[in-house]
Design brief:
The protein is built from 7 helices and 8 strands. By secondary structure, the chain is α+β, with helices and mostly antiparallel strands. It has 2 domains: 140 residues, Butyryl-CoA Dehydrogenase, subunit A, domain 2; 152 residues, Butyryl-CoA Dehydrogenase, subunit A, domain 3 (Up-down Bundle), CATH 1.20.140.10. A hairpin with a 7-residue loop joins β4 and β5. α4 packs antiparallel against α5. The two termini are 35 Å apart.
């Protein structure tokens, strides 16, 4: 989470926008930036919000329930967003950073999950938490995508996808090591010489090679400033969806090769099997990814209303 905020600030600086340079300075000074975007009932994170942002003298007060707040024990700057609906016909999405120690911020220890157990992604309750103007990062019309939002999606989803690519690589390494040692009464050598183990190994490598190419292409294009225009959103979420789903498949194959040993908590594959399941819950999930990709492919604008039908 911290790295993608630094990436956003760096991207904007490269584009000539110095509005988030303060984040780079604070990051260099040791501040830890986290993200509070996930909310129950909001399938369009960052663009809309169930959190209320109320304009007050000198800043905004935020009231809402944030989930999946990775780095909860250590963050010093909590990135949040909320809706300022003072003008119902033109609501604004307010992006801000809450300094640790701000009153009316309650971190609740809810993180008891299948995977990602080390991230301590606790819930955070905001009850009129005040953020001064100096920590208001962006104010944009709700539902719109500007350079800040584009950089957020790119840095977050490329980074997330890379984590799951790493899980796939590690799972393959463990499976191959196991296959070289594992014996069978039906073979005179290790199970690496069994045709189905070779088939599984091939399937893993085919998937990993495609994941790497897709991930690198999107990352390289974004870093090089390639102009994909309105195609960018679809390209980013397609890459993330492809990499995560492929990583699940690779880990499943690794578990198949490991046999029953993979069920034991002392086996690293057991943790990888649990952790890789979390990939589908990171935005964009399958439903939203297919909506964005499908509409873009069909030439339908993402902000077109009504959303469906």
């Amino acid at each position: 989470m911290h790295l993608y905020w630094m990436g956003i600030a760096a991207d904007l600086r490269r584009a000539g926008d110095s509005s988030l340079d303060w984040m780079l300075r604070e990051g260099a000074a040791g501040e830890i930036f986290a993200a509070g975007h996930a909310e129950a009932g909001n399938d369009l994170p960052v663009l809309f919000s169930t959190t209320v942002a109320k304009r007050v003298q000198g800043g905004y007060e935020f009231t809402g329930h944030k989930m999946f707040g990775s780095l909860s024990p250590v963050w010093t700057r909590f990135g949040v967003h909320g809706i300022d609906a003072a003008n119902p016909d033109a609501p604004l999405t307010i992006h801000a950073f809450i300094p640790r120690g701000t009153p009316h911020v309650d971190i609740r220890q809810t993180w008891d999950t299948l995977g990602m157990r080390a991230t301590a992604s606790e819930d955070t309750i905001l009850d009129g938490a005040f953020v001064p103007d100096k920590y208001i990062a962006r104010t944009i019309p709700s539902g719109t995508i500007d350079q800040f939002i584009g950089a957020l999606f790119a840095n977050a989803l490329v980074g997330i996808a890379n984590v799951y690519f790493g899980i796939a690589l590690r799972a393959r390494d463990l499976a191959l090591q196991s296959a070289q040692k594992k014996k069978s009464l039906a073979l005179t050598r290790s199970v690496a010489y069994h045709p189905e183990y070779q088939h599984c190994a091939a399937e893993m490598t085919i998937a990993i090679d495609a994941m790497e190419a897709h991930l690198d292409r999107v990352a390289d294009d974004w870093s090089a400033g390639v102009d994909h225009g309105e195609q960018w959103s679809a390209r980013i979420v397609a890459m993330k969806y492809h990499v995560v789903e492929s990583a699940k498949r690779v880990v499943d194959l690794a578990m198949e090769m490991s046999g029953g040993a993979g069920l034991f908590k002392t086996n690293e594959l057991e943790r990888l099997y649990r952790d890789v399941r979390a990939g589908g819950f990171h935005p964009a999930n399958s439903a939203l990814a297919h909506e964005i990709i499908g509409k873009t492919t069909l030439g339908i604008r993402l902000d077109e209303a009504p959303r469906w039908g």
